[in-house]
Amino acid sequence: MKINKGILYILLGASFFGFTPIFAKLGFNYGYSLGQITIAQMVISFILLWSFTLIKRSSFKGLHMKNMLQIMMTGCFVGLTSIFYYGSMQYLPASLAIILMFQFVWIGILLEWVFSKIKPAPVTVLSIILILIGVFFASNIVNGDIQGLPVKGFILGILSAITYAGFIFFSGKVAVNVDPWIRSSLMVTGSAILVLILFMRDIPSVLPLEENLLTIAAGVSLFGAVLPPLFFAAGAPLVSGGIANILTSIELPIAILSASIILSETVTPMQWLGTAIILAAIAFNELGTGLFRRRNKSA
Q: What is the pTM of this model?
């Protein structure tokens, strides 16, 4: 029963995150700039997360100046991911920007190899190859649909994958003994500070906050920074780490499906095939790696 609850919570958290591109794309359609959307998102996320943290009376135990700064610096990766991810959507269809951002899976494996000296298992290498094959189909290169799209959009999409992989890597290393809500709030604090510095010139244009911008920013904040961590925190302890990672990958088809239905973007059968290959590769890596480790232990 607890496992079923955990699965449900993680699926809900990942599904919520899959709707964030919709709000970002709508914001651009309303004529708002990348700076305006990102500033409003981070400020609202900052207010919401700290409000939940203080109402919950989370413990500050284990927190000191050094790890507080480390947590905030890790949070900067969140701000950079938002900037690159939403920036990519200014030039590319949301469905393609999502696929590019999802390359964080194999980039994260490379980071583990470079910084932690954890050599990927053969099953992981095969998974990376499958993911790249999936990207080939999902990007619709075969039909030539990416011709004419700005290179800048692809660069920003890959940068969003790199910074998101960096966030996952470092968030698993920094101050892991500190209360998760305190960590999340400090991360969004670091992210908000970075965004305000980078888009300083856009701050006057955000105030007074227009109703449309407030709606867009609230949607991105709730579905991207508040609800997913809340459900992940509730569900992750109830299931294994490998299963949790597989379940969170539902974000990819949800995001593409919502882009297709709500934003009326065309998603071809070839793109769905590529998406299915990417999801299968993620599941294959998580389940295969677990089996590989168990065999090594028994040997």
A: 0.84
